[in-house]
Amino acid sequence: MTLLEILENGLFALGQVLRFPVMGLLWVCVASALFMAGSCLVEFLSRQRERHGFDLNRWLIGGPVLDSTAERRKALPAELRGLLLEVEKGKDNLGDGGLEHTVMKREESVRSTVNPSRTLVKVGPSLGLLGTLIPMGTSLASLAAGNLEAMAGQMIVAFTTTIIGLACGTMAYIVAVVRQSWVNQTVREQRYLAERIASELARGA
User: Fold this and answer.
1) Sign (positive or negative) of CA dihedral 128, 131, 134, 139
2) How many structural domains does the chain have?
3) Tens-digit pLDDT profile for residues 105-160
4) Which residues contact 106 (CB under 8 A, 6 or more apart)?
């Protein structure tokens, strides 16, 4: 056996070793995609209930932001209430960029909610492709040996993993698009609210 044949056989064996973790990770992708879709649906229903009839401009007309009553704050969505609470906790450190730092920290927290779905958009199809190519090697080996039944079984596995990987990526992409629209809305409202808070602090000073 030549050195080239040894290397080729070693790579083939390595590809077969990767088969188990790839299949396991594909199941993880399936579970993750279903969990993301479920949590996205729950958040959608929560946002619909929380933001029903809410308008930030109309809320701001009702009075100052920092000295707003507890009853008035209940009308704010959870993200904006969280920003207002964090601003009030660090009220003494809002100067010299403190308010901007607080807003940026909240923005990073909001934007991070999209990262898992964005990751799955790329990982799902990649694992599906790996799950396709690995059985294809075994299928071709079975064809060379004249075992058509084994070849057909491996081809079924190969095409199934492609379908699963693409389905997970598609579901994750839809979740990412929906969540990104929510993130954009939240970031826009947080910045607007922060500008009003900065104006009130400037007037107070």
Assistant:
1) negative
2) 1
3) 888 989 999 999 999 999 999 999 988 888 887 787 787 788 888 888 888 888 99
4) 79, 82, 83, 86, 190
> What's the rounded Cα separation, in Å, for the pair 32 and 198?
41
Do residues 62 and 196 lie in contact, with contact meaning Cβ atoms separated by under 8 Å?
Answer: no
The domain containing residue 68 runs over which residues? 3-204
78-98 burial, b at 16+ Cβ within 10 Å, e below that, comes to: ebbeebbeebeeeeeebeeee
Structure tokens that stand for 172 in this block = 């994750």
88 CA to centre of own chain: 30
Q: Do the beta carbons of residue 15 and residue 134 sit within 8 Å?
A: yes
Answer yes or no: are the C-beta atoms of 161 and 39 closer than 8 Å.
no
pLDDT in tens, 45-61: 998 888 888 888 888 88
